[in-house]
Amino acid sequence: xxxxxxxxGGTSLADAEKFKQVAEIIKADPxxxxxxxxxxxxxxxxxxxxTDMFYLCYEKxxxxxxxxxxxxxxxxxxxxxxxxxxxxxxxxxxxxxxxxGMYNMTGRDYAASRGEYLNAIILSAYLGYDFIDAREVVFFxxxxxxxxxxxxxxxxxxxxxxxxxxxxxxxxxxxxxxxxTFSRGGSDITGSxxxxxxxxxxxxxxxxxxxxxxxxxxxxxxxxxxxxxxxRELRELSYMGATVLHEDSIFPVQIxxxxxxxxxxxxxxxxxxxxxxxxxxxxxxxVITGIAGRKGFTAINISKDLMNVEVGFxxxxxxxxxxxxxxxxxxxxxxxxxxxxxxxxxISGKLDYVLNGIQQEVCPDSISVExxxxxxxxxxxxMVKSKGTAAKVFKAIAEANINVKMIDQGSDELNIxxxxxxxxxxxxxxxxxxxxxxx
Length: 439
Ligand code: ASP
Known about the structure:
Layout: E1 4-8, H1 16-27, E2 32-37, H2 50-62, H3 68-84, H4 92-103, H5 108-127, E3 130-131, H6 148-159, E4 165-168, E5 171-173, E6 179-181, H7 187-198, E7 202-207, E8 228-230, H8 231-239, H9 250-256, E9 260-264, E10 273-276, E11 290-303, H10 313-323, E12 337-343, H11 344-347, H12 351-362, E13 366-379, H13 389-399, E14 406-409, E15 415-421, H14 425-436
Parallel strand pairs: 1-2, 1-7, 2-4, 3-4, 7-9, 8-10
Antiparallel strand pairs: 5-6, 9-10, 11-12, 11-13, 13-15, 14-15
Helix pairs in contact: 2-5, 4-5, 6-7, 7-9, 10-12, 13-14
Aspartic acid binds next to helix 7.
């Protein structure tokens, strides 16, 4: 029987009612054998996520403040879930251990990870599934990077011994056994890791929206849901700031070619978004799959006559950035000009060093800096098959009276990226969306 791995986000497990909904979904398909959980999320507007409460608790403990009130609040949420589910288990021993861990400075990651840990214990008891602690099956290297192959070996061997199991998402173990978390939202990655190890036929990611939207709903009114998107398109959109799924969660399933289905826990009948390796489906009518963008970039514009014949020019410029451990995002160039686009936050405090370094290395005719640049990516696998996509993007931008500062099209024709001023960010996305999506 080929397994389905399901991952439920924090809002899907915020209280006992949600646990019941989740259990119903899991039980509706016997193939849903492996379940990954987040920590309880917000139950209502203004509520707190358990993970944030654990972070706060740890900070208080470190600064010597009393954590009793906050810790009791956290404990209360778990106890309430257990009692409303009518379970006979108790997590009191675990809670005591965690409280001591806070005082003994067991680590910020340890504290944050306990939200998922407790939730997985409770859900496994409620479902009658085994509990597998992520610290025994998810591993990091000494430098903090994820140890994908060792994890996959250990995890797949372990899964053979468990017909059905629940895993806490978000964390794993360092070589010395201490707990380390992925970055925020990292339970999505755990789900993907389990899916790969189980050689699952599907990774279902259950959340509070009916799929991936074509644009940010805070910017574009009522954007359409994307029916099918490829891993690579998704990566482009996630990188550019589209949320829903953690951007690193694609890698484990991509290796195994397992599709991801984004589903809505409140509306399980909705199809959601399918994320696949490849698809013969091209939306030749709308052409684009989605739009996403990010603010907060800085452009360093360098010009020098005959730059084009100066061998090693680009390498020398990038070498200066490398010395300060700054990665670049884009590198649009002309014959005698070159711009380096970097995240403003990454270059902050290092700009003078970088400008002086470039001056010394390549002696440019001029060098200038532009802040407050926003990048917008228009992504679509159908672009390769259709003509006039770029023209439509620029028509929309021109009609909205927006000045384009940079243009970049990936060599695979999967995206067009434009750089504009931060202040035009929202208008530009609305203009592009309505240029492509007509009904
Ligand atoms: N609970 C963690 C967070 O809030 C991880 C997750 O939910 O995926 O970031």
